[in-house]
C-alpha cells in the first residue's frame, strides 16, 4: 500500500516532549505523496513549554504540510460528512486523549477528527505517549487495541527504570502503521523495545 493520493489527518495532542520526533514523520508522509491535514488540540494551540513555543510548532506544521491547521471542534466536525480523510493519525496521543477516545468523549478538535473518521469506518492510528500506560491507562490501551478500525503504532517502555509505567510509540513507524491500517491490518509486532532505541 502506498500513500500517493491519500489524505491523512495528523492530530497532535499535548505530549510536547515528543513533537521533535513526530515532525520528521509528518514530512515523511508528505514526501510519500500524502495530503496531510494538521489538527491540534486546545493544549497544543495554547501552551508554550520548555520543548518549544506553540507558535513555532504550528509554523512547522504549516511549512511541512502546506495546509491550514484545524484547531477547533467546529472546524473538525465536517471531516465526517465530507469523508475527507482516508486515515486519521493521533501522534503523539497522550494518556488523557487516549482515555477520552476509549470512553467515547469528544472534547477537542483531534478527538472530533478521530470520531469523524470512525464514523466513516476508516482507520484511526494512535501513536501513544503516556506516563501511565502500564498504570490506569493500561485498560484504555486494551480497549482501543480491541476496537474495530483503531490501530496502534508499535510501542514500548521508554524509561523502565525511572518511569516504569511509561509507554511511548516508535514514531518512526507511523508511516508503516498507516500503510498497514489502510489494508485493515495491525503492524506487527505491536509491543517493541523503546528504551534501547532511545539511548
Could you walk me through the main structural features you see in this protein, from its secondary elements to its overall organization?
- The chain has one domain (7-198): 3-Layer(aba) Sandwich (Rossmann fold), CATH 3.40.50.
- Strands 1, 2, 3, 4, 5, 6 and 7 form a seven-stranded mixed β-sheet that branches.
- It starts with 6 loop residues before the first strand and ends with a helix.
- The protein is built from ten helices and seven strands.
- It has 199 residues and is of the alpha/beta class.
- α8 (138-145) links the parallel β4 and β5 (150-152).
- It is globular.
- α1 packs parallel to α3 and α6 (95-102) crosses α8.
Count the strands? 7
Distance between the termini: 32 Å
- Rg, rounded, reads 15 Å
Oligomer: single chain
Sheet with most strands: 7 strands, mixed
What's the CATH architecture name?
A: 3-Layer(aba) Sandwich
Secondary-structure element sequence? EHEHHHHEHHEHEEEHH
| CATH class placement | Alpha Beta
Class by helix and strand content? alpha/beta
Percent of residues in beta strands: 15-25%
Amino acid at each position: 500500500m502506498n500513500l500517493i493520493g491519500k489524505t491523512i489527518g495528523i492530530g497532535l495532542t499535548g505530549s510536547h516532549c515528543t513533537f521533535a520526533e513526530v515532525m520528521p514523520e509528518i514530512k515523511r508522509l508528505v514526501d510519500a505523496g500524502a495530503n496531510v491535514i494538521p489538527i491540534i488540540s486546545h493544549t497544543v494551540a495554547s501552551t508554550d513549554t520548555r520543548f518549544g513555543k506553540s507558535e513555532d510548532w504550528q509554523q512547522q506544521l504549516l511549512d511541512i504540510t502546506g495546509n491550514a491547521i484545524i484547531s477547533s471542534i467546529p472546524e473538525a466536525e465536517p471531516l465526517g460528512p465530507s469523508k475527507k480523510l482516508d486515515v486519521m493519525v493521533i501522534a503523539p496521543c497522550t494518556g488523557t486523549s487516549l482515555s477520552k477516545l476509549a470512553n467515547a468523549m469528544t472534547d477537542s478538535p483531534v478527538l472530533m477528527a478521530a470520531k469523524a473518521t470512525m464514523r466513516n469506518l476508516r482507520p484511526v492510528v494512535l501513536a501513544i505517549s503516556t506516563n501511565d500506560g502500564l498504570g490506569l491507562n493500561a485498560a484504555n490501551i486494551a480497549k482501543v487495541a480491541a476496537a474495530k478500525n483503531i490501530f496502534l503504532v508499535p510501542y514500548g517502555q521508554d524509561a523502565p527504570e525511572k518511569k516504569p509505567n511509561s509507554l511511548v510509540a516508535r514514531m518512526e513507524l507511523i508511516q508503516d502503521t498507516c500503510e498497514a491500517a489502510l489494508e485493515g491490518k495491525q503492524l506487527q509486532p505491536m509491543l517493541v523495545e523503546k528504551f534501547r532505541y532511545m539511548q
